[in-house]
Amino acid sequence: MYRTVLKIILLWLLVYPFPVLAQQIEYGNVFASNMENEDGSKLGKGCIQYVSGSYTLPLSTQIDSLHRIRSWSATFTGKYASFDDEVCDKPVNPDDIINAGVMLTHVRTIAPRWNMVATTGVSFCAIPDYIRMNSVALTAGAIFLYKVNNALNVGAGIMVTTAYGEPVCIPLPFITWKKNGKFCYELNTQGRPEFRVSTQLNPKIRLTFSPFEAQAFSAVVKKDGDNKVYMNSLFKATLGGSCQLAKKLSINADVGYIYYHKVKFVDRSFKSFWRNLFNSDGAYKYKPSFALTVGFNYSL
What we know:
By secondary structure, this protein is mainly beta.
């Protein structure tokens, strides 16, 4: 009953009809692949199914003295993921996890070519059977952007988060680049880093290829008597498309090839974050597999 209520709350976050600027709902399936531990011993198979959603609610929009937009907005996100470990003596993944959060964002111009994006918010990452205050993280940060030209923006900033218990400062490089033509090239390091090449087949259908997309699932869990951060991260290449169903509504679908996928449990500390950032010691690894994603996008 307790787990059912949590799922209902999450689904409410995903579909509640706020008058929002943008809304996205997505279903994904990471097909089963073989798992092995650090020494190469086979553990069985694992797969993932998830539903996620996000929407941005505009709070305030003004035109400043440089005739640029100054805005405040709130972004709500939610994800429910279900894991299935097959033929494992001891499952590596939890049965399911819940990720949700709300982020307040302020965008303003500070010079003719300089913009600032400041954010603060709270997030929740947990498994339904183990929900504690440790599952809640506070985050705040700022990025300063320089407009090189109409196609390229570069910048850097810093984010502070309590997701690892102790406050962790994380540098944030920022690049957005877009070149239009018969083929559109887009590079974006904001949120989930990705690079896309797309082309418009007709007025309603657009085909997209991405050689690199990052995705992650996380939660605070109890392991060996201590609180740990469960990290499930993967990188994939995707081929898919989108279809414009109405002026403001579209559906998208893609097939992905997952070429890197690992699971790791790390201590909740400042040192542990940096020590494990590029370290795969103690990680469980998956063999390459495929993924399917279907989603809807709506904007006002």
